[in-house]
Amino acid sequence: MKVAALIVAGGSGIRAGGHLPKQYQPLLGEPVLRHTLRAFAEHPEVDLVQAVIGTGVENFYAEATKCLDVLPAVLGGDTRQASVRNGLAALSDAAPDLVLIHDGARACIDAATISSVIAALKTEQGAIAALPVSDTLKRDGGGAGPDREGLWRAQTPQGFHYKAIRAAHEAAINTYTDDAAVAEAAGISVALVQGSEDNIKITYEDDFARAAMILLARKGGLMKETHVGLGVDVHRFEPGTEVMLCGVAVPHNQKLAGHSDADVGLHALTDAVLGAIGAGDIGTHFPPSEAKWKGASSDQFLAHAAGLVAAQEGRIVHLDVTLICEAPKITPHRDAMVLRIAEICEIDHTRISVKATTTEKLGFTGRSEGIEARAVASIELPRN
Is the backbone peptide bond immediately before 328 cis, with ω within 30 degrees of 0? Predict the structure, then answer.
């Protein structure tokens, strides 16, 4: 049996807010519609995926479907019913046996629900995902509502034998609220298949957060948010032959004075990371009053801060450090510094930036009395 999925995404989605139709707004960094299309395109029982879209959004659709195995989109009509009719017509050459009609805004559809609807169509003329009504119903203005016994909330996908549902849509005169109603008006019986509470339709702005939580929980993830920390450190020069900067020994006619190896770059980065996770500063964790840190290599300070991020189930998104000095020259050693910081933090070197500047001979750095470092750390942490 050849199975096609028809994804209806031609609406404007204005109730969800934003400047784009809801199906093209971001959900976990990808358009809502991409999540929906991928669920069907990657399902082993689905052979074809056809989307129906609105006018003027072709570029957004192209972006949302990059590298997905889907058919070229077809334009919708003035109503959802007209859009479905256009989509069914577009599938005529493919001639599927079964078609699953699904709302593009239901991005949290799961593989089990898709399979259940397909399985039901082996014996049924039509089958839809639905949930029994569990709440007591009331009428607007007061008074008891209908008995909830036997009432179900319709979801999608709604599955049918292709030829039958296409004929039903072509013959439909009235406007119906879903495809099951179109089918039933044409005499097609429709069975109810257990749906999922997670199979929500994104309609309002708050639904995006709920959908994100559902998708993350399904992947075993957590909602994340970005924290930013700032670190600043200064060390003066004293007689020596090299300067430790960002974990690299740089030849120079002086060295930096300090209780540890005085690596001003790593110190600033450490404070930036600690600040982003609200864990105090470098002096809190490595007091200069303690003899064991005398002459210590500063890479262990930054590694400790990175470890605290990992302990909070966080992730270092980016580290940026600027070294302010007249000498030594930083550029010849920049790449080595980037790689050393990446090694210490166990992250990719593309997440590291090392820069250098001068103060045009102004101030203590301009007089070559010392070096200043300023760092920014961007950290992703679970949302409380």
Answer: yes
